[in-house]
Amino acid sequence: MAQFALAFKMAIKSILSNKLRSFLTMLGVIIGIWAVIAVVGLAQGSTKSITDRLQRLGTNLIQINITGRNSNRNVTYEELQQFAEQHQDDIEAIAPTVSSSVTLKYGTNTHDTTLVGTTADYSTVRDVNVSSGRFILPIDVDYRQKVALVGTYIVKDLFNGQNPIGKKIKINGQIFTVVGVLEERANSQEQSDDDQVIVPVTVAQRLTRNAIIRNFAIKITDGNRSEAVMNYLNDFLMKIYNDSTAFRVFNTAQLLDTLNSVTQTLTLMLAGIAAISLIVGGIGIMNIMLVSVTERTREIGIRKAIGAKRRNILIQFLIEASVVTGLGGVVGIILGFVTIRVMSKLNIATAIFSIPWAILAFTISLAIGIVFGLFPASKASRLNPIEALRYE
């Protein structure tokens, strides 16, 4: 233990005696660890944000996406309503959705947002409530009333926080009356749920010039009946399209599984790319350690002459390399933590500081010191003491 403590003290002394060179040596490790922490934090934050939003919808939500563009005809909302009436014990509500990007204008203020065209059942299916005013009514859909509900973020940005109920806004140049404000759902880092405008689906079809509804959300009464209802829907849609690739029926659990699989793969891929800079940093460590061995040849010769064994020299240089990379790892973790905090504070992105990944990154930085310091340490330990003492 005393030998390790002495080697550690000598390593710190060596680092302090060449501060700039030591900093440049550990720079590659610092950048590598920083990148790993920041990338993993961003990936985990994004995953958590999307997962939370899907979980809020519950396990009793089924989504239908129509993809068949060459079909002779498409399923209609009325047909799905008839289907729901046939299975009323299982199906609570169906809501069609038409979405598009639009520009809102109120006075001289403009705001780009997402438009959702739907029916009154959307409130039940998506568990969307209003904080003031009212939601879309069946009469709005039937008579194509140009009414709109806005999210709280739009209230802040477009109306400067004033009550928008009854005010006229323009959506892509057409005048709508605001009849409701959606209940705030997201936190400060997750604004998409609060940054949308909802209008009757029949109006949205005209506004977006898209008569075909390709997305339907279905809320079932019992999440345990999800597979059975999906089978009913698949049979029903097959009779219309006669092509299983023309539509897709999936539930929230399947969407979560797919999302987790994709994000895990993406996280590993990004972490792998960031790890390349760690390898480059390790090569830099080995290069500088070789220079250090050459510069300290006489010191090694003196130590061997007074009794130091080969393993003493080997351990000394391995510890020096590990201390350099370990310090680089600590600095990289601190920078990664600060980066994640800044991004979260400024609402740039949702990011999470992962302690397990920080521990793993620090362990990897120590391992890099051992792996890439092994060759210089071995070279130092093999030096002949007589030749080392003669070295000028």
UniProtKB/TrEMBL annotation:
It is found in: Cell membrane. The chain crosses the membrane at residues 20-43, 268-293, 314-340, 352-375. GO terms for cellular component: plasma membrane. Its main location: membrane. GO terms for molecular function: transmembrane transporter activity. It is a multi-pass membrane protein. Residues 22-234 form the MacB-like periplasmic core domain. The keyword Cell membrane applies. Residues 273-385 form the ABC3 transporter permease C-terminal domain. Keywords: Cell membrane, Membrane, Transmembrane, Transmembrane helix. Belongs to the ABC-4 integral membrane protein family. PANTHER family: ABC TRANSPORTER PERMEASE YTRF, MEMBRANE COMPONENT OF TRANSPORTER-RELATED. This is Uncharacterized protein. It comes from Caldicellulosiruptor kronotskyensis (strain DSM 18902 / VKM B-2412 / 2002).
